[in-house]
Amino acid sequence: GLTDYYLIFALTNVAIYLMVTHMAKTEAQKRRQQSQKEPINMDYVGKLEQAMEQDKLFLNPNLSFERLAEKLDIPVKDLSATINRHYQVNFYEYINHYRIQEAKRLLEDPKQSHRSITDIFYDAGFNSKSVYNTLFKKKFNMTPSQFRKKSAVSG
Fold first, then answer.
1. 126 CB neighbour count, 10 Å cutoff
2. Nearest alpha carbon to residue 74 among 27, 41, 36
3. Cα separation of 123 and 128, whole Å?
4. DSSP state of 57
5. Ordered DSSP codes for 48-65
6. Helix (H) or strand (E) run with residue 144 in it
7. What percentage of the chain carries pLDDT values higher than 70?
8. Tens-digit pLDDT profile for residues 96-150
9. CB under 8 Å to 29, separation ≥6 — which residues?
């Protein structure tokens, strides 16, 4: 009697849980497929690339997603979709790519050899030495100091 009741109760809850999780997964897949069907706005891509490559907005260490969207006059949702779908990275990965390239350029420049690694990471738009070192090492398989020494020897 009582055992059967608890068993039925437990099985019912498991069945409901499985149905709800399946429905949630199905809905998420539908949303993902729908967003992938929408074309990428290449005007937004152009604005974004100009802002990074010519205006060098990534140099601002306080650049936020919202500030960038406002500066480019692109709705936040559309800017997010553009970065995620066109470049297949998130905002921070996108911005840090430009910052790492700038730091690399500065470290390779003989005219910058008198400047400290700290000055260079600030000038590249980073405001955290640990983030800078981690990303730099991940990208180039060496620390910024090692990279600078190697560049000086080969340059």
1. 25
2. 41
3. 12
4. G
5. HHHHHHTS-GGG-TT--H
6. helix 144-154
7. 95
8. 999 999 999 999 999 999 999 999 999 999 999 999 999 999 999 999 999 999 9
9. none
Asked if the model's pLDDT at residue 92 lies above 70, the reply is yes
pLDDT tens readout for residues 17-49: 888 888 888 887 777 666 566 788 999 999 999
**CA–CA distance, 143 with 137 (Å, rounded to integer):** 5
The one-letter amino acid at 17: Y
Give the 3-state secondary structure of residue 114: coil
* DSSP count for the chain of H helices, then E strands: 8, 0
Angstrom distance (rounded) from CA 18 to CA 128: 44
Place of tokens 């199905």: 26
Are 36 and 85 in contact by the 8 Å Cβ rule? The answer is yes
> How crowded is residue 10: how many other Cβ atoms within 10 Å of its Cβ?
10
pLDDT for residue 26: 84
Q: Are 98 and 58 in contact (CB under 8 A)?
A: yes
The neighbour count for residue 115, using CB atoms within 10 Å, is: 14
